[in-house]
From TrEMBL:
The lineage of its organism: Archaea, Thermoproteota, Thermoprotei, Sulfolobales, Sulfolobaceae. The keyword 4Fe-4S does not apply. It comes from Stygiolobus caldivivus. This is AMP-dependent synthetase. GO terms for biological process: acetyl-CoA biosynthetic process. Residues 510-584 form the AMP-binding enzyme C-terminal domain.
Amino acid sequence: MEAKFYGLEKVIREWEEAKRDPEKFWADKSKVLTWFRRPDKIIEGQPPFEKWFVNGFLNISYNAVDRHLPDKAEKVAFYWVNERLESKAISYRDLYCEVNRAAYVLRELGVKRGDSVSLLMPSIPEALYFSLAAHRLGATLVIHYVGLSAETLSYRLNDCDSKVMVVASKGFRNGNEIRIKDFVDKLLNEYKTPVEKLLVVKRGYDDFNVNSRDVIYEEVKPRGRVEVDPVAVESNETATIYYTSGTTGRPKGLTHSNGGYLVALNTAFKSIFSPKGDDVWWTISELGWPVWPMANVYVIPVLGLTGVLFEGFVGYKSDLFSRIIERFGVSLVWSSTTTLYTLKSLGEESVKSGDLSSLRMILNTGEPLNVGAWKWLREHLPAVYIADAYWMTEHLYPVAATPFGIAEIPYKPGSAGSKFPGSEFIVVDDEGRPLPPKSKGYIVLRPNNPALAKMHKDLNGEKMVKTYWSRFQGYFYTGDYGYVDEDGYLYVLGRADDVISSGERIGTMEVESVVVTHPAVAEAAAVGYKKEGGEGILVVVVPKKGVSESHQLENEIKEYLRNSGYIIDRVVFVRRLPKTKSGKIMRRLLRALARGEEIGDVSTLDDPSVLEELRKVLAQ
Ligand code: ATP
Ligand code: MG
């Protein structure tokens, strides 16, 4: 393809090279890691059954900590900060000592290579120590969301078979104290789980019950220097299990490997951020969203950078975002569209309450980047490049993104970005035939990279084939709907399940990206709505603060959308949209409630109390 502007040419050249010779491309990228034994073979077999870096042995914790000691021992590996701006700096030497202590205790509790260790904590330094400690022993790390229901969490503990679980006694978010240990006690008493030992990290207080299965970390933590040898694991052994967000249905458990996954992630971030030695990278995410470990466990320390661990909610105070950036000189921010939208709704103060001159890039992930939030950020932070990366738990390597680390290319509002070297997407029609630019269709992948996950407990790959490879022969199906423009930029228009068939097939994002530019609208979701003779469009609107809902506003929004070519049947106003823990809108709930159907799995619904209002409003 011929590129219109210089940067894009470079990106496409690299993309073509990676496609022509993936073995060479990935062999080269694997050098980002220190291997105890170099792989014999780069790729063996075909997706989804392929293996990567076969017979290569490595240890994640060694790559993240030990190898930096000779030249970065005094460098700050992480800053920790909370909503009250209390903070702490952790050097690479500190990280080494703490990871070894944590690994020592886990080993004493019986954890060994191949076992799984579950973690339930806020974003505190111990979360990082225990993540890396689990990897030091060659164990599988499973990080859970604080706030999942007891039923969902007990299902996951059984699914991943963790005998050891590490928790913090408490967490703090949005000014509230969350009593994690009390919640877990109740869960372990009420549900059958494999957990035999509960390792508790005390946070200042000890007003919790201590049971026979409990081990209090402070009481068993070695005081002096301990060293635990990093266990060498084969590249294809499982490093971690993630569960999908549950946006379109029941969450799926996916496993990522030690070698391929790490190579893919580090390659991705080198291409997106092109991190430099003095970069300070803040990932605004809770622990349970894969984004947190992706950055803080598998990339920042592996590349020897400095990260910021933030405990709390960035919208807690309107000046928090600015203050944290100024305090630590943050240069890279990785976050979700929900968080960016939160900043916008807090108003100018959120980006003007400190010196933000260190900030050079903001990266979005998780949902299409809200065009309104993007415009607002551009206006207030004109020197900051706002980028996007589109990926999924099954394929933690960008499908499309803005690889600013390769070349300066413009971000096009509404798009997920351009082709990304090492990854290949194609937009196809119902029959799986590739479509020309500008035609809407299903997004499928030819994943020729080491980032494709395996499904958990799917030994012969049957479940994987059935779930992802059967809809379109020869392709991995993303479940997303979109189109490509003439420059090869990909536009994700929404989930294929959510496509509205109102004459033409319309992706939810097409409508939503217009509604959110209306001055009275803060957030919105569009879904198909059954009406006589077909499907109509229902728009669920969260009005801006201070705006009162009215029949007039309803008509005004309809009119506004009509001017952009969308005929809306119904507009309703709500105070909050139903979102997953990772901040994604659960449109299937809106659709089901509007149609009077079963709502299905809500195990990852962030705040189930939203259902009450939605039921009332949508049932009419
Ligand atoms: P489930 O698979 O359980 O329904 P989920 O798909 O939301 O949940 P994730 O793996 O966390 O679970 O999310 C991946 C999905 O998120 C993608 O398939 C896509 O729909 C959406 N997504 C992620 N990043 C972007 C982005 N930058 N632009 C557009 N969409 C994105
Ligand atoms: Mg999905």
